[in-house]
Amino acid sequence: MTPRRRYPLQPFTKAFLVALGITLLVWLLRGLTILAFMPGAVLWVLILLCFSLGIISTLQRIR
């Protein structure tokens, strides 16, 4: 039986974790030249999305 979380993840925290996972996957695949055709701007947009979601998630948890 798995223990339940005392504090369930907030929607912005879930979105941050998903965006972080996608960013890391794209970065890894681009580094392995599997997604070499993808422009670097896409990676920068994903990184900025992670930063903004992380900040919003942190601010939401503080309140």
In short:
With 63 residues, this protein is mostly helical. Helix content is 70%, strand content 0%.
Helix content: 55-70%
- Structure annotation, total helices: 2
Strand content: under 5%
Q: How many strand segments?
A: 0
Oligomeric description of these chains: single chain
Gap from first CA to last CA = 32 Å
Classify the secondary structure makeup into a structural class: mainly alpha
What's the shape?
Answer: elongated
Give the low-pLDDT segments: none
Q: Report the biggest beta sheet as strand number plus sense, adding barrel if it closes.
A: none
User: On the 0-100 scale, what is the average pLDDT?
Assistant: 88
Q: Could you spell the SSE succession in H and E letters? A: HH
Radius of gyration over all CA atoms, rounded = 15 Å
